[in-house]
Write a structure and sequence with these properties.
Blueprint: E1 34-37, E2 55-59, H1 60-65, H2 68-76, E3 81-87, E4 90-91, H3 98-102, H4 105-108, E5 111-116, E6 120-126, H5 131-147, E7 151-155, H6 176-192, E8 202-206, H7 212-215, E9 221-225, H8 243-247, E10 252-256, H9 277-284, E11 301-305, E12 321-324, E13 333-335
Parallel strand pairs: 1-2, 2-3, 3-7, 7-8, 8-9, 9-10, 10-11
Antiparallel strand pairs: 4-6, 5-6, 11-12, 12-13
Helix pairs in contact: 5-6
InterPro entries: Aldolase_TIM (IPR013785), GH (IPR017853), GH114_TIM-barrel (IPR004352)
Keywords: Hydrolase, Signal
Catalytic activity: Hydrolysis of terminal, non-reducing alpha-D-galactose residues in alpha-D-galactosides, including galactose oligosaccharides, galactomannans and galactolipids
Length: 352
């Protein structure tokens, strides 16, 4: 998650498309147990852990390369909800639609500046002010439904934070309103699609607290990183901005990144003893009431993950290492088996 200054700005929600009646599985509710691994491909030859997590957030293009993972998960956890993560705001060469879409002459002009000119130079901001750009991202939503996902987790819907104060970090001079309109179009499309289980394709909000109040009634869940601001990377904590989801009986999946969960001196290795006492206590603290608490994270589904390796290695983020809150300090650590050698395999399905 990129550090950003939070700000308040009025945003008007335009009516886009037809509002569909949203249906969802009965177990997709606040406080449901979940797992997220978007760094590497799930290893179906190994024992699956944890088997009591009813929501799994996995990378869409990993599943496009290995669609058998979905059947594997459903075989182990019959009522599992599979959320498919994808980059909604940017495109990059590892994406399954890079060659078939973004490298076509008629679409190259829809790619702007890099996400990070130093570390992530190949990730380029999509022009989400352009209807063609939006329509191309919608293809990723449809691919998720076709593969058998139950929902989508569109990332980087906060490009406007790069375009503040006269800056043009995305290359498109975007505003919060632009991203509200963009995400609303994705939601309208998602809700018209049916999953293979017969429910609406659900869609979530990834961070972007400045526009949360405009999207709570539009989206079906939220995925947050560092909302307690324990790492002091934002101007304030922002868990409270997402209590509206809980009020509407929509889950909020929250990730905190205690540095002690990473095995010292190793980029992606898990400290199986868990986060130290102080970091575990702060990271796992959940308010017992919707108001009057310290963090305003009442009924959030809270987990701890590895964030950075040595020298802030970005490759350590969101791998199979997870510590679950509630079991107590030194407990609740699981390492989901993955096979990183599968990450670059040929895509068997592409957005279209």
């Amino acid at each position: 998650m990129k550090s950003a200054t939070l700000f308040s700005i009025p945003v008007v929600l335009h009516g886009i498309g037809v509002v569909a009646q949203v249906t969802k599985p009965a177990n997709f509710v606040p406080e449901v147990k979940w797992q997220i691994d978007i760094l590497n491909t799930l290893d179906t030859t190994k024992t699956l852990t944890p088997t009591d997590a009813l929501v799994w957030d996995l990378d869409l293009f990993h599943l496009a390369r290995h669609p058998e993972i979905i059947d594997f998960l459903r075989g182990k956890i019959p009522n599992v909800n599979i959320i498919c993560y994808f980059n909604a705001g940017l495109a990059q060469p590892s994406d399954c639609d890079w060659d078939s879409t973004w490298q076509k002459p008629e679409f190259k002009g829809l790619l702007g500046k890099p996400y990070d000119p130093e570390q992530f130079t190949e990730e380029l901001w999509v022009n989400i002010k352009n209807q063609t750009g939006i329509d191309l991202i919608k293809r990723r939503v449809r691919l998720a439904a076709d593969l058998g996902c139950d929902g989508v987790d569109p990332d980087n819907i906060d490009g406007y934070t790069n375009d503040m104060n006269g800056e043009n970090g995305t290359g498109w001079k975007t505003t919060p309103q632009d991203y509200v309109n963009f995400v609303t179009q994705l939601a309208t499309q998602a809700h018209t699609l049916k999953t293979k289980r017969g429910f609406s394709l659900l869609i979530g909000q990834k961070n972007a607290p400045e526009i949360a109040r405009n999207l709570t009634s539009v989206l079906d869940f939220a995925v947050l990183e560092d909302c307690k601001n324990l790492r002091n990377e934002a101007s304030r904590a922002f868990c409270a901005d997402f209590q509206g989801y809980i009020t509407a009986n929509k889950p909020v999946f929250s990730i905190e990144y205690p540095t002690s969960l990473r095995k010292q001196g190793a980029a992606q290795q898990c400290n199986t003893s868990g986060a130290n006492t102080a970091q575990y206590t702060n990271s796992c603290a959940v308010d017992s009431a919707p108001t009057g608490g310290k963090y305003s994270n009442y009924k959030f589904s809270e987990i701890l993950k590895i964030r950075d390796g040595p020298n802030d290695d970005p490759a350590a983020e969101l791998n199979g290492c997870t510590q679950y809150c509630g079991a107590g300090q030194g407990k609740g650590v699981v390492v989901t088996a993955v096979n990183e050698d599968l990450d670059g395999d040929v895509c068997k399905s592409v957005p279209k």
